[in-house]
Amino acid sequence: MAETTPERWQTGAMQNLRRLVLDHCWLAAVAFVLLAAGSALAQSASAPDEESRVAALLEKHVALAAELKQNQYRRPLYLESSESDTTISGTVYAVLDSPFSAFSTTFKSPTRWCEVLILHLNTKYCRASADSSPSTLATSVGRKTAQQLENAFALDFAFRVAAASPNYLAVQLHSDQGPLSTHDYRLDLQAVPLPDGKTFMHLRYSYGYGTVGRLAMQAYLATRGRGKVGFTKINQGEKPDYVGGMRGAIERNTMRYYLAIEAYQASLRQAPEQQVDKRFEYWFDATEAYSRQLHEVDRESYLKMKKEEYQRQQTSPSSTG
């Protein structure tokens, strides 16, 4: 075997070192290219997804053009509901006289969602854990009249902005558990801008229920809820009948949530110090336009109750959790 001199060993070691460095640089370059390609693929995968959702919502706006222009609501709004053995849902499509940028700013914010939700008769309290996504909305729901928080039901929503761009907004609120074996509460909101400075939105409100929840709702509908109806007409005579039961209930609450969204956006046209009072007044007056379905309390009682609940919401944490 030939003897290896120190000089030859050093030369070989240097060559191996150079080869190692070159190999490492080549691998790093390949890794960089692969990462860049993966990022580009992820972006290209998400972009068509958003584009398809925007296109689908705009197509729905075109498909509902006649219903949005002329309907029983006297506003550009379409409402529908569905019921199965275990779930119930209500859906609203509507055109809002509000720029998309302002609408998006409102509904990307968990804190502003609480300002909206408190308008609903049954919402007694709402506090966001942080004004960012993800966040948690700690809410309390109860009677349509004044109520202490300890007597209301706690309902905590996980808040997530699923998408937010200059052309599309998607926000999801989800609660696993509700009162009386109800579960999987969802408020899903989507919106796109329209060419005339308005916003087209889709709101879906849904929840699931078990035997206890169904029996409790049936008991309510047979007593205090007797005679209450929704908005879907089940015949077209001179005196139309409206859907009742659980579908009627989900339609009433979906409409209340929608009118809360409309009231909040309308209040932004007022001076800041007037906005809270104006949105309470707007919401009540808007619901009274559908008194057959939505009337529960007189105006003075509602305004007094909501101002007190709003003050409680601003100054104290919930005691129901």
Give the helices and strands, then pairings.
Elements: H1 6-63, H2 65-69, E1 77-83, E2 87-96, H3 100-107, H4 110-117, E3 123-128, E4 135-141, E5 153-165, E6 168-177, E7 183-193, E8 199-208, H5 211-222, H6 245-267, H7 275-288, H8 291-294, H9 299-315
Antiparallel strand pairs: 1-2, 2-8, 3-4, 4-5, 5-6, 6-7, 7-8
What is the overall pLDDT average? 86
**CATH hierarchy: architecture:** 2-Layer Sandwich
Order of helices and strands: HHEEHHEEEEEEHHHHH
**How many distinct helices?**
9
Any idea what the CATH superfamily is called?
A: START domain
Poorly predicted runs are 1-11, 20-46
Structural class: alpha+beta
Percent of sequence in beta strands = 15-25%
Largest sheet: 8 strands, antiparallel
| CATH-derived topology | Alpha-D-Glucose-1,6-Bisphosphate, Chain A, domain 4
Strand order of the largest sheet: 1-2-8-7-6-5-4-3
